[in-house]
Amino acid sequence: MFKVLTRSCNLLLAQTIKHSTCTTVNLYSTIAAGALTRLKMSEEKPKIVFVLGGPGAGKGTQCAKIVDRFGFVHLSAGDLLREERAREGSEVGALIEDYIRNGKIVPVEVTCSLLEAAMNKSDKNKFLIDGFPRNQDNLDGWNRQMSEKVDFQFVLFFNCSEDVCVDRCLSRGKSGSGRSDDNMESLKKRIQTYNNDSLPIIKHFEELGKVKQIDASPSSDEVFSKVEEVFVQSGF
What we know:
alpha/beta, disordered N terminus
């Protein structure tokens, strides 16, 4: 009787140990799977939307609304360049000032380095890159330095007439924007640069089926209603 009871107890213990081991293994498997998922998430490439349009098209205004609604980080190539220009001790500040004041496009190596540094500092994974790429050299430089590191989504193109853009920029300058290029002389150069260099880039992305065009002439709220549709339809 005692032997039978002992064998029963041993069998029960063995089954308990077996069940416990399986549970532990399953638990470790679950933890490992979760860790792997987190690792994959952490290694996910940042999603990128390029925001393009003429000077005064309202890119900055609409980017601020997209940030609030969809949780993107807004990286303005122009703002990053102006911040670097103003940073004490900057080795490229004078060069940036010369390019901006004369309505020219800053060398791509400088802009890409500033954009990459800003993305690396962020804890988010969705970025609006405003005002870039602005010419073929920008695009080539981006492809060399960044294309393999990011998940490019589309170009958000704010299309606006030249007259509306000029009026907006001049009004912004009169309101104290603090921008050295919000004046008629710089605007003429910026618009010429945009027409000659940036529009072909937009055309390039259109041929790839990667442009979402928005009429930027109406009020900012009307424009954003169209922008919102684009982002919702794109899965954001």
